[in-house]
Amino acid sequence: MRRILSAKGEIGLFRAKEEIIKCLEDNGLMSDGKLFLNEDKLRTDVIDDLIKTAIFSEDPELKNYCFLLIREYANMTGAISASIHDLYMAKGRGGALEFTVPAINIRCLTYDFARRIFKVALERRVSTLIFEIARSEIDYTFQRPLEYISCILSAAVKEGYKGPIFVQGDHFQFSSKNYFSDQDSELEKIKKITQEAIEAGFYNIDIDPSTLVDYSKATLVEQQYHNYINTAKMTDFIRSIQPSGINVSVGAEIGHIGGKNSTVDEFEAFMDAYLSNLNTKPGISKISVQTGTAHGGIPLPDGSVASVKLDFSVLDSIGKRAREKYGIGGAVQHGASTLPDELFNNFPKHKTAEIHLATGFQNIMFDYAPEEFREYNFKFIEENFKSEWKENMTKEQFIYKTRKKVFGPLKDKWWNLPEVDKNKILDVLEKKIDFLFSQLKVYDTKSYTDKYINLVKVEYKNNTDLSNKNVDFRSLKLEEGAD
Questions:
Q1: Of 14, 17, 387, 461, which has the highest C-beta tally within 10 A?
Q2: pLDDT per residue over 135-148, tens digit each?
Q3: Distances (CA, A) of 255 to 133, 224, 227, 264
Q4: What is the predicted pLDDT for the residue at 461?
Q5: Which of 36, 54, 77 is the last residue of a domain?
Q6: Rounded to 5 degrees, what angle do the CA atoms 109, 114, 118 make?
Q7: Averaged over 389-402, what is the pLDDT?
Q8: Whole-number pLDDT of residue 50
Q9: Does the residue 44 lie in any domain?
């Protein structure tokens, strides 16, 4: 039974908590205030409307009730938010090296795209995959951590996926400008978003003070000082707030993606200093390095993306040292989603622990969207972000670099695309995901998470301000920080 309940006349939106309760009772999912599990009814008649209300309702209390129900029902069905830390520690001991874990940033169509990812994962017995969102993406896509993880968990429930759900805060990045103006203030900002993410259920956090590396200093340790000292502070902070029974997987980065390639000596200088300043164990589980890529690729004047020379020896050498000397999972590749298809099977060969993928999926969304709708998005960019069109940019370069910023203000337009149009996009995304899973060798990896990952059901506690946090989208400056 579908409802037309919102003041705007939208289908599938609840108007009040009482309407949700009645729906749950009618479907055998609640009685006398207690939740019960009827998976068929939950998947077919309820979960779509819960997540849509959670995203688009303007009532903070109603949104929060939907977030609560989604988490509780996900726990009941066996879709459990988890940390990948112990699997990476197994990689650090020399096991589970034959595959590379894909970390997928979803900027738009989050619920629908996640459903397709889980569909492929179920067919291929894949459970070593990460869903992530960067600090910058949280802002310009209008997806707070609680909304993002709720979309992922709802998608898992809808598709019948059971097991660990790895959700990651990607590039919780320090602004060098803000940091060197007020170090304490910038550190507190990173702590605040990290706490919000962990409370939402993100048990994987990539801390990124690599923007603070100063190559003008004489020694490698001096160059890495602000990087390792803040990574240590953030690791200690994460350990102080993580849920009982869970070691949040913490990632670090030694060179800002898009800069010069990383070296083993840099890694050791960072790692030794980091460990000597760390007060709480365990430390990081992986290290992100620069191999020659750039976030989002480098757009050429015609709007195409420049080819890059990726140095796999960086992943080999630093990954080997990471495992053998420090016992952590190895090296992480960023900025990879726009690489040629023929390169992806190299990452498992070079024992890369994790690879981050984002912009390639965004490109598919635009490439396969209806032409009229795509042009509507581009016109929106020209009208609202004209100040970011630099003199040396062609129109194609400007659109390519800026178009990701439509996903927040036009979220409802993408969500409500006609099903036939949306499915054209999702079919291509699904095919791409299956290809990547095959190339990264993560087919049949459920046995690894069964062996290494302990599932801990964490009770949802809302400490988040659910009032409208969406800032004026025109004030969001383009930053690095997602692939």
A1: 14
A2: 999 999 999 999 99
A3: 20, 9, 9, 12
A4: 73
A5: 77
A6: 155
A7: 93
A8: 98
A9: yes
User: What is the identity of the amino acid at 276?
Assistant: S
| Distance from C-alpha of 353 to C-alpha of 356, rounded to nearest angstrom | 10
Token pair, residue 149, equals: 């993880």
Looking up tokens 């197994």 gives: 90
Q: Write the CATH number for 343.
A: 3.20.20.70
Tell whether 166 and 29 lie within a shared domain.
no
Q: Are strands 34-35 and 30-31 parallel, antiparallel or unpaired?
A: antiparallel
Same domain, 169 and 219: yes
Q: Which of 48, 46, 4 is nearest to 21 (CA)?
A: 46
Q: Which two tokens stand for residue 169?
A: 């805060």
Same domain for 70 and 91, yes or no, is no
The answer to whether the CB of 248 falls within 8 A of the CB of 85 is: yes
**Cβ(102)–Cβ(361) below 8 Å:** no
Amino acid at 50: L
> How many angstroms separate the CA atoms of 475 and 384, rounded?
10
Confidence of residue 62 (pLDDT cuts 50, 70, 90): very high
**Would you say residue 470 has pLDDT above 80?**
no
Same domain as 32, residue 95:
no
pLDDT averaged over the chain?
A: 91
Q: H/E element holding 396?
A: helix 395-402
φ and ψ of 442, to 5 deg: -100, 5
Same domain, yes or no: 71 and 158? no
Both tokens of 227, joined, read: 């990087």
Tens-place pLDDT, residues 245-284: 999 999 999 976 556 899 999 999 999 999 999 999 999 9
Which of 41, 57, 77 represents a domain boundary (last residue)? 77
| Residues 6 or more apart whose Cβ sits within 8 Å of residue 317 | 264
Task: Give me the residue label for tokens 């370069």.
Answer: 397
* Res 471: pLDDT: 47
317/360 same-domain check: yes
Residue among 329, 360, 330, 328 nearest 344 (CA): 360
Residues 205 and 219 in one domain: yes
pLDDT tens digits for range 166-209: 999 999 999 999 999 999 999 999 999 999 999 999 999 999 99
Contact 247, 83 (CB under 8 A): yes
Number of domains in the chain: 2
Same domain, 172 and 96: yes
The answer to whether 240 and 203 are in contact (CB under 8 A) is no
Percentage of the chain lying above the pLDDT 70 cut: 89
